[in-house]
Write a structure and sequence with these properties.
With about 325 residues, the chain is α+β, with helices and mostly antiparallel strands. Helices cover about 15% and strands about 35% of the residues.
Amino acid sequence: MEKNTVTPVRPAGAGAQPLYFNPRRLGHVNLWVNDLKASERFYNQVCGLNVEFTEPDLIATFLGTGHTPHDLGMMQTTKGVDRYGRNGLLQLPGSVGLKPGLNHLAWELENEADLVRAWAVMKRDNVPIDMTVDHQVAHSVYMFDPDGNYNEFYCDTVKDWRSVLKGDMELITSHWDPEASEPFTEGRYETNPALRYVESAPIHPQRITHAVLETDKMEAMTDFYTHIAGLKVVRQTGSSVYLKPSLDDYSHALVLVESAEPAFHHVSFELASQDDLEGALTRLRQDDQDITMDIDLPWKRSFMLKDIDGLQSEWYVTRRAEISLDRRGNTPLAASV
């Protein structure tokens, strides 16, 4: 059973390794799926996420609640065929996305100046970067963690993103040169977003909050997500590490769980209240939806669903009790965090 001893960890940026990024929150999670339309129906009609916009040429759909341009992105697996963005940018090489799973985690930064500063310091320090891109409403830097998970670090460039991204879009993404112009210093994210969910869906989500990754390289992964990604360790036990972004109203944005092999375990969405959660469970059962796990712990109430590819999502509310993983009973570790 998990020993719940909290271990002090040096703060991000301390010591010889510099802090590069400083994300506000987990902006979205992007998945690879086998059947884009079927997956879109599941996350829209069952999970209650709005389809904000689509990118047919990229075979991609973007859904959310309104906190950001999307909480969840999905791209159809490449089947080994390259896909290109605008101006000939090789956006999705056919060598990636061969099976369903995590495409990338996306971390929202305060502004372009912070993003460009991090990029410049990484370039100086020879930290490997995959590419920099312009998504029309965001500028982004992409790179891999030690387990090969893809990460996007981005800043919003358009506050009223719904005026730009809606319906079926032409190719959106092109190359971005971080040195092409003076970076802006104001935050262009929406501070008072209009939240929306699908009223007819069983689940009425509020926002994406965190993701859970399993890893067999806990030390290297923790080092990446603190000293490069800029998250702060707020809790560490023998087999788990909780990492927090800079916004105070997110208790954590990523949990690393020790495992025999690396894997994306799930993405988590917060609901408004326990009444909303119990109502969602009732409606899901009435619709004969398969609830893969019903979790009732002192520190959270949640349930897990699997989409048509078997990818897991958690829908939860927090409780006041402190997390104590040695009291999780038969609930698997990665589902308890």
